[in-house]
Specification:
Radius of gyration: 56 Å
Structural class: alpha+beta
Low-confidence stretches: none
Distance between the termini: 165 Å
Number of strands: 8
Strand content: 15-25%
Helix content: 55-70%
Length: 238
Amino acid sequence: MPKRNDRKSISKSIIFSLVFLVLGFIMAYSYSLSNQREAENDFSGGTFFEQKEQYRKELIEQQERNKELREELSGKQGAVQEFERSVTDGEEDYTAYAREAEELRRFLGLVPVKGSGLKVTLQDGDYSADYVNPNDYIVHESHVFQVINELYISGAEAIAVNGQRIHGNSNIVCTGPVIMVDGVQHPAPFTIEAIGSPDVLTASMQLAGGVQDQLVNDNIIVTLDEGLDIRMPALLSE
């Protein structure tokens, strides 16, 4: 039968063994748990880095796409602006051509016209056939041409002599006391009407040493009536 002291020694050994066993288990469990946490930390850290790298790549791709879209938009805007300029230039050219064509038709007498302007009346001067040469006191075609040319130079849009339209190729011939305008005979006095700015037309006629003074020196009676409403038919309707 074991002694009492021996039994105590055996009990202590068993207790120490159990303690060491528990401590060993605790230490092993703690080490395992620590390794598991480190592994989890390593895994989560790697996943975050990969996500961050993926986001960075997507952002770069989006920025590149935005740049391409901006360049494409800029190119389309430039094309639209160029088209608008071409349309505007075309409209301006068309408007200019239409205006020139209308002025040409007016000058050729192809369309009826109306507007304010100036009326110039030329009359033979007073003379006595017994004492002077009557040719020095009557209106000749040269006098009519002087007035017509001056009015055209001053911007007249259309001119008529005694109601007959004048065009670029009109022929005016003096035959004694009458003149022939494109084969149509007109007696004195001769009324020359011009559509245009009344102030400009009148000022051009009244220039010192100008047409009116020259006509008066030739013994022609000159009358100016400005600001009248003048209407002229087209040549084809005459």
